Known about the structure:
Blueprint: H1 2-23, E1 27-31, E2 43-47, H2 48-70, H3 72-99
Amino acid sequence: xxxxxxxxxxxxxxxxxxxxxxxxxxxxxxxxxxxxxxxxxxxxxxxxxxxxxxxxxxxxxxxxxxxxxxxxxxxxxxxxxxxxxxxxxxxxxxxxxxxxxxxxxxxxxxxxx
Length: 113
């Protein structure tokens, strides 16, 4: 499976990225000062592909952070379910000990959400 992934995804992606790097190797300025774009203190020179890769990396990180925030309610719900299951397991063990029953045949525990 990993070999198929490498052949079908990574190799064509590498070819496209190398072509992008070769085609966009001219140095371009990035000015951070929006009011005075000619300010040399806040203007950085780098090849265009560097700026493209930086923008893509920032997008991946921002997207991952957004997905992590969106899934917070699911993680909280999972913690609640695990806590509830642990409490129920302890209750079952306590009931078994008090009744002196060591076998679990014929009994079932049904959780309803």
